[in-house]
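Take a record.
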Amino acid sequence: MPPVTALYAIVLSDSQPDGVEFPGSYQQTREEGKSPTHSITRMVVYQATDNEKPEWFTTYEYGIDVGLLPADSKSQSGSFSELTNGEALYDLVSLRQAPGVEFHLSKPGDVELVAVSMTLKDVENAEVQFDKWYEQEHTDLLSKVPGWLRTRRFKTSHFAMDKEATYLALHEYEWKNGLGGEAHLAAMSTNWRNEIMQIYVKDKSRRTYQLQEDLGRHDNI
């Protein structure tokens, strides 16, 4: 995978977050009087549009350069020792964004989020081949879909590698977009993609959401 550049907590819930709600593990650390080593600098809330549950999808960005942390720093992380139900930690490993996009100006309803998560089979070079396809073909083709804004790729955080690795991609589009159109279908039907799905991907899920709230970037929410 590419180098880790940021750390996110992602929480799936059946109820809408009430204002600023910290992830459970982070809140627990605060209540216990510990001093978290990382602050939360952004909270973004999305609501499902696919009639699936859980209905709410919230991302929390931590104000830390995880690339500067050693891989065994979980014991130092403080706030990451006890993940609550519906909460997962991810390392951001790749980001591609359309020129001129300013997400802090986005309003509720302006953005559609497509969240795609996959796990890989236990076969040789699965991650290498999966990553190569995503970086060299798939994101390039998705960027040609009308309304594409950004693609962020994540992997289960090295703080939580006692769990099976999940590869999560968050694709954001303008609300009126070309999903399901010619460019999107082309991205989903290449020979390379078919090969990756057949040989390396074990499980795949896809959810769709609409932006509801973006608290923006602050020193510490």
Remarks:
- The two ends are 30 Å apart (CA to CA).
- The domain at 6-214 is CATH 3.30.70.100 (Alpha-Beta Plaits).
- Residues 25 and 83 are 5 Å apart (CA to CA).
- Strands lie at 6-13, 39-48, 56-63, 87-97, 111-120, 148-156, 167-174, 201-214.
